[in-house]
Amino acid sequence: MRRHGIDCCIIDRLDAPSPYSRALGLHARTLEIFDALEVLPSIRKVSRRLKAVSVYGDKGFLLELDLTTLKAPYPWVLSCPQSEVETVLIDRYRMLGGELIRSAELLDFRQDGRGVEARIRQGSDVQKLQCELLVGADGVGSIVREQLGIGFNGVDYKEHFLLADVLWEAPWSNDRSHGFLQEEGLLLALPLPQGWRLIMARREPPTLPLSLALFTERLTSILGEAPNLGEPRWLSQFSVQRRLAQHFRRNRVFLAGDAAHVQSPLGAQGMNTGLADAFNLSWKLAFYLKGFGQGALLDSYEQERRPVAEKMLYGVDMLSRASLVKLPMLRRSRDSLLKLAGSRRNISSRLLRTASQLNVHYRNSPLVTYGPEADVGWRHQGPLPGDRLPDAALKSVRTGHLHQLHGLLRKPVHHLLLQLSESPEHNERLVMYALSERLGQEYRESVHLTVIAARATADDDVPREGTTRIWRDHEGEFASAFGDKGRLWLMRPDGHLAYRAPVSNADDLLGYLRRVVGKANS
Ligand SMILES: Cc1cc2nc3c(=O)[nH]c(=O)nc-3n(C[C@H](O)[C@H](O)[C@H](O)COP(=O)(O)OP(=O)(O)OC[C@H]3O[C@@H](n4cnc5c(N)ncnc54)[C@H](O)[C@@H]3O)c2cc1C
């Protein structure tokens, strides 16, 4: 919200980020979001890069998923404690002028047509806070969700989970996660920036007080010798549930993160999904508050994010059940399927793209669309409206410097990419100059134009730059991700494609912009 210049205030009843980190794994799509927020370098400083996931069954090795094969700018998982993620994000938020009030608890709120009035308690002091919109990112026990009367249906898992963060000279490589799906039960060994996180699942509740004894016993059976585990920095137990809020919005109040969806930590999706909720929602709230677009913009948050959360919950549930299954026959079938997945490139790459959230799309959203002459048969080239925009290397026509497309599109506005065909026709040049003028006049603050020339276009055929920067496809990366025809690609501030059409549909595109990012009352 601060990137969009909106005044906002976070209230948190904790007086500091928790020193214990629940979430750990940051996936490839989240790293792109962090890149857009300009926090990725700080996050990388306090993270460990994980390149693969290895899974073992009763009879040894089952599969390895190689994260570096992902087609993405950051093809890894970063192991980064949630407390560090929070600290980095809060620093950035404050740098942008955001206000954070700690030790402040939301007691209740009321909303009407004009705004929201929240009652906040700080110590013995209770104050009223007026705001236009309220987002409940207040976790699984969300008071915001409760007060809205929104159902949170789902199930509790029977298993009990134990967690230990320890220093340990493990006999395994610490550039990957290790999962042991054996008869004795599930054990995960996840590298931390320093040390390891061990998680095990059991049917019986652990005896208290918690100790490392169960981990030592389990690791001894895996390794054939007792591990020399250091003092635990954190020992904890937790149970797991799967729940989805019936709605993510009621009028001026929204739900995001665990307040809207909660699931098993296997697959490391919870925090990543919550961050993606916030990235989807923030530009819509900002546009609404600036008077751009219409009610459809706010409606689209639930329309886009709830199906994503529902699908994610289903996937994580399947993964959790498969990891925890006890019956020998089912375990054998599971292990055969995992072996098959590991040996088939197309299956493992699909699994990886899903887990890394690069596959998340909003194709069914009413907010995204095609132009009337869009060329999208079943063998279409390039992303469809609602898809995440792929990255590609580009070369500046003016300076010859190389840049990544994502890096050029960081500013939180809509970006229109005008892709010229290899031999740009007269009409394409006219559209380029006309769009450059119209966008400059009517959408200077909200839509930026970037022109991409094909790799093979002769220098003399590349239009003159004028006020619009022109980039040339470098090594054909853009054409391989987007196809090679002249097209208009409109990217939203959250990196998803809003609109796709041939260059000849420029008038229709302007109509779309008027509806979605035009001043609501003009
Ligand atoms: C063991 C474990 C491991 C996990 N590992 C991963 C992982 O690797 N990757 C991943 O993506 N996810 C993981 N998760 C899930 C992840 O931890 C959660 O999805 C994530 O913390 C949710 O963030 P949130 O901000 O929505 O909620 P929370 O982290 O619960 O934060 C809610 C905030 O709201 C504040 N709050 C609550 N009520 C009020 C109130 N009334 N007034 C003011 N403030 C209030 C709280 O103080 C807190 O700061 C894991 C979970 C567990 C249990």
From TrEMBL:
Residue ranges of the TM segments: none
Domain FAD-binding: 2-313
The protein's name: Oxidoreductase
UniProt keyword annotations, A-Z: FAD, Flavoprotein, Oxidoreductase
Biological source species: Alcanivorax borkumensis (strain ATCC 700651 / DSM 11573 / NCIMB 13689 / SK2)
Enzyme class: oxidoreductase
InterPro entries per the UniProt record, alphabetical: FAD-bd, FAD/NAD-bd_sf, RIFMO-like
GO molecular function, one term: FAD binding
Enzyme Commission code: 1.14.13.-
Cofactor field: FAD
Keyword Oxidoreductase on entry: yes
This protein's record includes keyword Oxidoreductase: yes
A Pfam family annotated for this UniProt entry: FAD_binding_3
Domain of life: Bacteria
